[in-house]
Amino acid sequence: MIKRFVIVFLILAVIFGGIFGYKAYKGYETEQMMKTRKYPPASVTVAVSKIGNWQPYIHTIGNVTAVNSVNVTTQIAGQVNGIYFKSGEFVRKNQILVTLDDSLQLAQFKLYKSQFIVNKFNYLQYKKAYKKNAVSKASYIQMLSTLKQNEAEISQTEVTIGYMTIRAPFSGIVGIRGSSSVNLGQYIQPGVSIIPLYSINPIYVDFTMPQNDLHSLKIGQKVLIGLNSYQGKVFIGRIKAISIDVNTVSRNITVRVIVNNGNMILRPGMFVTGRVFLPVIHNVVTVPATALTYNPYGDFVYVVVKENGVSYVKTDYVTAGEQRNGVVIVSKGLKPGVTVVTAGQVKLRNGVPIIIRKNKAGKGNSK
Question: Domain ends where: 196, 230, 250?
């Protein structure tokens, strides 16, 4: 039994040893073949890293608001007898908008003026008599008081008559006069809204921004404003004010921008986007964003190297910065004027030869 067991053990050892030896031999051959294998050239497109100025900005959103806005109203009650504006039109400061019936006030004004003639004459007579001690001082003071009261009544009536003509407090655009608005013949009370009025040239845009951006903001800073309803239309404004307080819930601040709105495109309540321009960064190296490749070790680009007439690639790890409009900043790891691969990186690794193909426009790339 022991002899048979030894024989079986030896036979199995020979069989398994042969199998493992064959596997090891095939692995060795494969390894040697991979070391000596030449990869076929990969087809790629390339671009050259550039150096230049970079304009950073902060993207934000905001709302348009009028510089001045008010619901025009009356200070005294009266019946409307004239409306002198059209819905949505531009009116100038002090332009007449509405008039109220002032016939009663005009009659009172004439009455007070006629009384003034008598009171002034009596006052002058009392003044002469007082100088001659013909009347008492109390009588003279009483007549002077009557004259002054009469003058006050005249002034008060003049002011009241002025209030009967309702004027625009500033230049701007009036709103739409609807069925619920003031109409001819209507008796209105003080505080009743006659028509909304907005001053929109210039106009304000209020942006909400994170408190972390506060250090980058200053009065007079340039802001580019975009409007979705007008594709391609942009407005240039300047920061006029920065809120002193920070919202305790959102931790945001409000930034007010003043914008020239001569064409009246911007209207109160509109939603807009904004770019707050920061100081320009000089001598920045940039490459197309498609040149940047990622792996667990970091960001890198494939740099094109040419030796003995053959182009191949090597890996160059970089530190990438801000990316915008298909271009990315390379803050570390790449010099300007270096040719990098922009498409075809899937088949690449260090030392792989390449063939540079033309781009979609049919133009050759720099090598």
Answer: 196
Least confident of 97-106, 279-288, 302-311: 302-311
Q: Which of 259, 280, 301 is the last residue of a domain?
A: 280
Q: What is the pLDDT of residue 323?
A: 87
User: Can you give the residue range of the structural domain that contains 274?
Assistant: 59-67+198-280
Question: Residue 26: pLDDT above 90?
Answer: no
> What is the pTM for the complete model shown?
0.67
Categorize the per-residue pLDDT at 181 as very low, low, confident or very high, splitting at 50, 70 and 90. confident
Q: pLDDT tens, 201-252? A: 999 999 999 999 898 899 999 999 998 888 778 899 999 999 999 999 999 9
Query: Three-class SS string for the chain?
Result: CHHHHHHHHHHHHHHHHHHHHHHHHHHHHHHHHHHHCCCCCEEEEEEECEEEEECCEEEEEEEEECCEEEEECCCCCEEEEEECCCCCCEECCCCEEEEECCHHHHHHHHHHHHHHHHHHHHHHHHHHHHHCCCCCHHHHHHHHHHHHHHHHHHHHHHHHHHHCEEECCCCEEECCCCCCCCCCCCEECCCCCCEEEEECCCEEEEEEEEHHHHHHCCCCCEEEEECCCCCCCEEEEEEEEECCCCCCCCCEEEEEEEECCCCCCCCCCCEEEEEEECCCEEEEEEEEHHHCEEECCEEEEEEEEEECCEEEEEEEECEEEEEECCEEEEEECCCCCCEEEEECHHHCCCCCEEEECCCCCCCCCCC
On whether both 106 and 186 belong to a single domain, the answer is: yes
User: Is the pLDDT at 362 greater than 50, yes or no?
Assistant: no
